[in-house]
UniProtKB/TrEMBL annotation:
It comes from the Eukaryota. Residues 12-221 form the SsuA/THI5-like domain. This is 4-amino-5-hydroxymethyl-2-methylpyrimidine phosphate synthase. Responsible for the formation of the pyrimidine heterocycle in the thiamine biosynthesis pathway. Catalyzes the formation of hydroxymethylpyrimidine phosphate (HMP-P) from histidine and pyridoxal phosphate (PLP). The protein uses PLP and the active site histidine to form HMP-P, generating an inactive enzyme. The enzyme can only undergo a single turnover, which suggests it is a suicide enzyme. Keywords: Iron, Metal-binding, Pyridoxal phosphate, Thiamine biosynthesis, Transferase. Its cofactor is Fe cation. InterPro entries: NMT1/THI5, SsuA/THI5. It catalyses: N(6)-(pyridoxal phosphate)-L-lysyl-[4-amino-5-hydroxymethyl-2-methylpyrimidine phosphate synthase] + L-histidyl-[4-amino-5-hydroxymethyl-2-methylpyrimidine phosphate synthase] + 2 Fe(3+) + 4 H2O = L-lysyl-[4-amino-5-hydroxymethyl-2-methylpyrimidine phosphate synthase] + (2S)-2-amino-5-hydroxy-4-oxopentanoyl-[4-amino-5-hydroxymethyl-2-methylpyrimidine phosphate synthase] + 4-amino-2-methyl-5-(phosphooxymethyl)pyrimidine + 3-oxopropanoate + 2 Fe(2+) + 2 H(+). Homodimer. Pfam families: NMT1. The lineage of its organism: Eukaryota, Fungi, Dikarya, Ascomycota, Pezizomycotina. Pathway: Cofactor biosynthesis; thiamine diphosphate biosynthesis. Belongs to the NMT1/THI5 family.
């Protein structure tokens, strides 16, 4: 059994296939003992990679994108979440809500786990021809604090993770979910990556086996009624009603949250445009510059799980990525 250390930016329901793969022995069947740590603050994942304390990091693809050729080069090798797991809450009933209603209003957005919340929501506004600069944002506070303040009357809308939104609505009849963003198209929301220069053939083999198990976890989540493993959901997310967890899993299942470890090109390109418009990258980074899809493609074939939407083909057998020189910002 080989140890494969993972450092993750949080503990989230959109990571469910990984938790299932862990709990159901899928990683062990591939000869891997996956050990996960969650640093505080979240950007400690980069320190763990640099110190060789972790073999891979799990988080938003915006991090390796904005770091590339500025601080450190990272290579992304797989995804777990294919869509945005956020929800938009409002005061009062949600009937008749339109995204254009947000214009000129105040939106609270949690930011403790990084920039993804604001990046996606503002991209969504731009895609719908809504001036994101015409909205007021409060986003430099803890998510729990913002949730309490929103329920107390601060702001007009609140963007938070889907599971927290469902739990809040179950407890508070004065707020409602105006939009669940899992319905708003593909983006590689949560991905696995490591430093490009330290990616060896041995690491690539571990990545492939990791992706085999992850693909099986994805298949399990997509084909299994979450009510049948409610006890596991309660153990994984003890601070929310299990009914809310089940509802969110079913929402994710029906809206392509979990498709494949292979990152689809269309969603990747969309997110890169969003990062460019947010000024995190000067120009969209080509898929094959940032992503080595070889381990995931080989794993999907081995696991006999559909890859979903087409991604750029691997250039033959999995190869070690070329070494890259990091530059200080």
């Amino acid at each position: 059994m080989q140890t494969f250390n993972l450092t993750a930016t949080g503990h989230n329901l959109n990571y469910l296939p990984q938790y299932i793969a862990q709990r159901h022995g899928f990683f062990q069947k591939e000869g891997l003992e996956v050990i996960t740590t969650i640093p505080t603050p979240w950007d400690g994942v980069l320190d763990a990679l640099a110190a060789d304390e972790a073999h891979m990091a799990l988080g938003g693809i915006w991090v390796p994108s904005m770091y590339r050729e500025r601080v450190q080069n990272y290579t992304v090798f797989a995804q777990i979440a294919n869509r945005c797991p956020l929800a938009l809450l409002k005061h009062g009933p949600a009937e008749g809500f339109k995204l254009t209603d947000v214009a000129g209003k105040t939106v609270l957005m949690k930011s403790g786990g990084g920039a993804s919340v604001g990046l996606f929501f503002k991209m969504l506004l731009r895609e719908n021809k809504i001036d994101a600069r015409g909205v007021d944002y409060i986003q430099d506070l803890d998510g729990v604090m913002l949730g309490d303040l929103f329920q107390g009357g601060m702001g007009d809308y609140f963007v938070t993770d889907n599971l927290s939104a469902r739990a809040m609505v179950e407890k508070n009849p004065n707020v409602s979910i105006a939009m669940e963003m899992v319905t708003q198209g593909d983006v590689p929301w949560s991905v696995y990556y490591r430093e490009t220069a330290t990616t060896t053939p041995d690491v690539l083999d571990k990545q492939r086996r990791f992706c085999v198990a992850l693909a099986k976890g994805i298949e399990f989540c997509n084909t299994t009624d979450p009510a049948s493993y409610a006890e596991e959901l309660a153990e994984l997310f003890p601070n929310v009603p299990v009914a809310a967890s089940i509802a969110v899993v079913n929402q994710f299942r029906s809206n392509a949250m979990w498709t494949s470890p292979v990152i689809p090109l269309e969603g990747y390109d969309r997110w890169q445009l969003g990062l460019r418009d947010a000024r995190l990258v000067s120009e969209p980074i080509p898929y094959t510059t940032l992503v080595n899809s070889g381990p995931a493609i080989e794993a999907v074939e081995a696991a006999k799980v559909s890859v979903g939407k087409e991604a750029p083909a691997s250039d033959g057998p999995v190869q070690a990525m070329p070494k890259a020189v990091s530059t200080a910002a």
